[in-house]
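It is time I had a proper look at our fold encoding. Can you supply me with one protein entry, sequence and fold together? It will help me judge whether the discrete encoding reads sensibly. Leave the record below and I will have a look:
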Amino acid sequence: MVLLGSTGSIGRNTLSIAKKFNLKITALCANKNSELLNRQIEEFSPKFVAIGDEAKACEINHANVFAGAEGVLEMIDAAYKEGMVLVNALVGIAGLAPTAKALEKGYKVALANKESLVSAGEFLDISRIVPIDSEHFGLWYLLNGREPKKLTLTASGGAFRDTPLERLKNAKIEEALNHPNWKMGQKITIDSATMINKLFEILEARWLFNANNIDALIEPKSIVHALVDFVDGSTTAHLAKTDMRLPIAFALLGEVKEPILSPVNLLEIKNIEFHVIDFKRYPAWELREILLEKPHLGTVLNAANETAAELFLQNKIAFTDIAVYSLKAMKEFESAHARNLGEVFSIDKEVKAFCTRIKGVS
């Protein structure tokens, strides 16, 4: 396999599954963590290596090093063999070009880069994409080829699900990054706190399962990952512990016949609760219906959110401004509709430029 984003949490979990099942790692790619990448090179002996930060290329202990965004695409091309799997665990819109390149080349793509589908789902070959995501894995597991009446994703509620609303405006970065259930990268943890991550997942489900009736509920323990309503009136739920190795294993292997996790002990859980997603706490959630109706606007949402989340992490805007930026951009660019992949990148740049000009939100 080729693994993009090897030093992040998904990448590290992917390597643990690769080691467990003796899967060959042909290529590794990281953004800038050269120290960890070198340790991974020593352990897994990939034929090719790429690093996004060109300045770090000289620090990599390998004979075949590709550097920069173009270098990553060149590595994808060089590493390909028929039937090969590419795991894309890159963060942000930077993961879209590698996804498109991999699909064009002929890879099966195990996709953890949400932004690829969110920004450009209509231009990607969905038939060769397998999501690495607990909620979409849960939906796939439950559907088993059957036609659903409704799909429901679950959300943890993020770092501020129990925080008094009046405190959110002054929330600190370290508080937003303190996820109650998961250990993830900074960007996705922020997106969880704003509930924008769940909007992304609804869009992903829209493309992956060709469905329109999709909603989400808060399940604070993150034990139930997905629910499916069927036309016969029955509802099924997928329960599993909070561990990404399960969806990763299925994405890589297709079928798993040995334990990855220990089963959920219902007696230990004692109770499972569901809550509606409150617009007052998560104002961006009001975009759900328009995104399902006009999924191409995911390009706009992703660009606005990527800009706002970074500004928050730089301590330049308040936490509550993240949703405001997204709502303003969606209104400003409500008629934007890319006609091809190139226009996706153009709209992304336009939206980001607009968001950098927004003043006086707080």
About this structure: The radius of gyration is 20 Å. The chain has three domains: 2-132, 135-290, 294-362. The mean pLDDT is 95.
